[in-house]
Design a protein that fits this description.
single chain; 345 residues; alpha+beta; 4-stranded antiparallel β-sheet; two-stranded antiparallel sheet; elongated
Length: 345
């Protein structure tokens, strides 16, 4: 894939994530009758802008951020529609809506993948047979194409477990195709307590896969499970990096662009899967209570709700400003490391 196409794909991915996030703030702010002054996607000079009834909508040069600027967000205001004049619970909803929209968009992307594009399911081709496994002892070999197990047709790898849902140990009948000939094998699978499955000792071929599309309700269920699974993975990774049990591996814009280019070179499904993961990542990271992030603002609002009065806005503003400077410095450092890795290969 050309560098130009990679850049376009990366810009679209970044803009989508930011648009979804800021739209979450925007739509809930409007629902709470908060005056939104500026809704911008990107940073730096304006490329396009349009003045609405009260909000200026802007598309800016650098697709690396954005904002939904509300009146009275970082300063006091006597305007009844100012952010600071809204009840604490409404302000928490407005701030939390950005990450929540990222989670929702990722979930919907996964649903689209499962229902419309389908997921790659390994075919019925055996790629590897473990030595001394039941399959190896019976005579099965890599390259065999599974036809049936206990009379149940095997079209792809997902059909194997249901066909081997045994109540107790016993032999099974496996039919395969090898060099145009159909062969029968009788073998006794081994029970794996860790996965609660009966195993023959065979592995799928990475070179072959088929697409499997799911129904509407099944796609919703799978999309939800996938979103939760990815959030758990993100949480465990962050905890592991903080605890030192997982190597610190953080990519900035340059590193992400490289990954997007690789996904775009693969398939639309890969791009959408990456987009969903990055959107979950953005939402999750924004909920971490670090200064300048949504999580920190929610903490300040929660403290205000408990105390019954707001924390000094100048102090809060300084905390968020210092946090923003530190985050920008960290981003520059990560970007430098990304460039070094890219140049040195």
């Amino acid at each position: 894939m050309s560098t130009f196409t990679t850049i376009i794909a990366a810009v679209l991915v970044f803009c989508f994530m930011v648009l979804v996030h800021e739209f979450g703030h925007f739509i809930v702010a409007k629902a709470c009758r908060v005056y939104v002054e500026d809704f911008s996607i990107g940073m730096g000079p304006r490329l396009l802008h349009w003045q609405g009834k009260e909000t200026e909508y802007c598309l800016r040069l650098l697709p690396l951020g954005g904002w939904c600027k509300m009146r009275g967000e970082d300063e006091d205001s006597e305007d009844e529609r100012a952010f600071c004049r809204r009840p604490v619970w409404q302000r928490i909803c407005i701030v939390a809506a950005g990450p929540i929209m990222n989670f929702l968009s990722a979930f919907l992307i996964y649903v689209v993948i499962y229902m419309i594009l389908g997921i790659a399911v390994p075919s019925n081709l055996v790629g590897e047979v473990s030595p001394d496994s039941p399959a190896a002892l019976a005579g099965m070999e890599a390259g065999d194409r599974l036809l049936s197990i206990n009379g149940q047709e095997i079209q792809n790898w997902a059909d194997i477990d249901p066909a081997m849902d045994l109540e107790e140990a016993g032999s099974i009948e496996v039919w395969v195709q090898r060099d145009g000939e159909e062969l029968q094998f009788l073998l006794t699978p081994e029970y794996d307590a860790a996965s609660s499955r009966w195993l023959m000792g065979i592995y799928s071929s990475l070179e072959e896969s088929s697409l499997q599309k799911e129904g509407f309700f099944q796609s919703i269920s799978l999309g939800l499970k996938q979103s939760i699974s990815m959030l758990k993975l993100l949480a465990s990774s962050i905890v592991g990096m903080i605890g030192g049990t997982v190597p610190v591996d953080i990519s900035g814009p340059v590193g992400i662009v490289t990954v997007i280019g690789q996904a775009a070179n693969d398939s639309l499904r890969s791009v959408l899967s990456l987009l969903a993961f990055l959107s979950l990542n953005l939402g999750f990271m924004n909920l971490i209570p670090l200064p300048a992030l949504d999580g920190s603002r929610i903490i300040f609002l929660a403290i205000e709700g408990i105390r019954g009065k707001a924390i000094n806005r100048e102090i809060e503003g300084i905390v968020h400003f210092v946090g923003l400077i530190l985050l920008m410095g960290l981003m520059l450092l990560i970007t430098y490391q990304d460039i070094v890795r890219l140049v040195t290969g």
